[in-house]
Amino acid sequence: MTTTDGILPTPHVLIVGAGFGGLQCAKALRGRPVAVTLIDPRDYHLFTPLLYQVASCVLNPSEVAAPIRKVFRGAPNIRYRQDQVVALDHAARTATLASGAVVEYDACVLATGSATNYYGNATVEQHALGLKDLTEALQLRNHVLTCFEQAATTDDESAREGLLTFCIVGAGPTGVEYAGALAEFVRLVVPKEYPELDAARVRIVLLEGGSRVLPAFKPRLSAYTARQLARLGVEQRTDTLVTSADAAGVVLHDGTELATATMVWTAGVRPRDLPEPESTSGPMSRIDVDDHFLVAGTTSTYAIGDVAAGLGHRGAVLPMVAPPAMQAGRFVAAQILGGPGRPFRYRDKGMLATIGRRAAVGQVGPITFTGVIGWLAWLVVHLYYLIGFENRVRVVMRWAWYYVRLDRPVRIILRAGEPRG
Amino acid sequence: MTTTDGILPTPHVLIVGAGFGGLQCAKALRGRPVAVTLIDPRDYHLFTPLLYQVASCVLNPSEVAAPIRKVFRGAPNIRYRQDQVVALDHAARTATLASGAVVEYDACVLATGSATNYYGNATVEQHALGLKDLTEALQLRNHVLTCFEQAATTDDESAREGLLTFCIVGAGPTGVEYAGALAEFVRLVVPKEYPELDAARVRIVLLEGGSRVLPAFKPRLSAYTARQLARLGVEQRTDTLVTSADAAGVVLHDGTELATATMVWTAGVRPRDLPEPESTSGPMSRIDVDDHFLVAGTTSTYAIGDVAAGLGHRGAVLPMVAPPAMQAGRFVAAQILGGPGRPFRYRDKGMLATIGRRAAVGQVGPITFTGVIGWLAWLVVHLYYLIGFENRVRVVMRWAWYYVRLDRPVRIILRAGEPRG
Lengths: 421, 421
Description:
Two copies of one chain form a homodimer.
Chain A: E1 2-4, E2 8-10, E3 12-16, H1 20-29, E4 35-39, E5 44-46, H2 51-55, E6 65-67, H3 68-71, E7 78-81, E8 85-89, E9 94-97, E10 102-104, E11 107-110, E12 114-116, H4 122-127, E13 128-129, H5 134-153, H6 157-163, E14 165-169, H7 173-193, E15 203-207, H8 219-231, E16 234-237, E17 242-246, E18 249-252, E19 257-259, E20 262-265, E21 269-271, E22 301-303, H9 322-336, E23 351-356, E24 359-364, E25 367-370, H10 371-385, H11 389-405
């Protein structure tokens, strides 16, 4: 027990990470008899499903990022703290922060999410561009725009070929959505604004280790997606792995070399920013938790979302996506408030991925849908889950505008100075 | 003479810089019988008068930056090239670019604008934050938000005092407008979202070397501005110079030490990115030009805008602001097209500065105005000159929204990854 503002002793809940899991947990504890400290080194909640639209010049960073303090305006029992937890002492119930401060807690919820996983391949890590946070999305936008600028002026034919070949590794939803958005960017912007370039020479190559694009979706939807991507000019190679990379391009597992200045890596994620002594020894390198998201061997430390190997339907490990993290966040909040002790039950609401204007795929239980219906479903769901009324209004206005104007205007090469310190 | 697309030999005009001067010059040459190459290391035209709104969390970077290629869509005789001119050979009429390429030209227009001027004060340069380009504006936004976050968690009372003291050096329009915007940010956001902080403890200190704020404006307007700033809680010290700075704060010319983690420097600008052999030996360190903007000693190199010491009304050196640069850009374009040989005549359209919601000052010739009238004039003029219909729509919607909601939502600490390669 700790005191908040020196008034009443209330249980202190430390939530580590303001992603989908952490944010839902904090929201569920809002106004309840607990004092919550929400810790994240980034001062915003990031709506990662739309990150590819920041990378492809459709949205501004601020339209997919809600300032945490704004989300919890008028919630006196929720405090945000810009910091990072580097170590936990489960017995003493204390957390050591990167700033050196030590915080006591009664319950701790680890929800630090995931980062791009290069699976230890050093050459890939050195040359790849990730698409998992805002810094990476802006880096990718900057990089792609720079490639077009360099291609427009170079006299070296083979250099131009590499600059105009964009390789995307991993055909899950992020890879597919980015490939489709990049193809639309090329089709809409390059012919009008790069008279030096021949848009037909631009290649977008999507590589997938599995036997089909969107391998987690039903085969029918994968086939539809492959056709839509082909229609947009995206080359697809399945059953293909990248073994190494250098400045000239990537080498595939069969020895093929692909000359490219751009390798976008969406082929995997891993838990990130785990404090000591948490280990990633669980399934898929995630933290082992029980069916109440309690970290193995502890009584007051929970782990939810991408960092934790929580169990869902029929004992399958929960997928590393937003819905299970959000459900787990609310579940753990109920546990902390002394709610029902029944084990977590995952409600699978299905999956969606968009391929381009008016084309998307979705599956909800046995039902699948494609085309305009899928696209509308995707649109409604994403707007619904986007945090903040203002962001929703702005994003829908942008989409409507671009739908009519066929434009991609957020396309400046942006450098942000670091804070002075 | 050079050939464009191998079709017809047309005079080749090299415009160096896509600021107000270079952009107007290129626009005036659009569709005319010349081939224009517009060179700028940044791929956007920046509307610098609204930069302080990016720094103060009102606008997104893309709302004050128009992609150059978008501005010149459908203009086949204007080509953009992302590069920088490092040297000119006036006799041979060639420019050497940073990339190593050499470009021939028939006429060259230097319009590289200006950067923050620290007047050689090394300690100030090391610790100050500028507000002259997008990188600096985002750095300032990141820095100020980080100060609030650190102040919210520190236990060190004197550190908090420094973190909550914001010092702005230079009370020209940029310094005044940023001070007002920061004061509004503090008033609107801090009480609602930083329960750890006492907004009344935040200090904004505006320092000016001259005897009054907005020294270029009429005394009546300076007095009005000083009252409005005081109403917003901005402390003002005139006849005050900064002599040195360190991490703990700034030292004033009378020995006073001001503990602050933030020194925003808007006290001066200097020409930037000048190619060899141009020198800044002219008045105010600008390039010497004749009354046709021809660089002294050359017959085909012009210099306009902040880099050039062009002459305006009654032989006074033109001010380093947008209107004379724009007028000079159009004038030089007419010269290049063989237009009238009469000397340049500056049409002074007046000056405007805004202090906050519904308060601004303006002067047009003998007329001065303040308050809501000034604010409306400021609003109309800025929207009129903002490049791009879409930017105008977005900015006016943002302003309307914030006017009603009293919010400052573009307030995330943003880090943009550098392009790979």
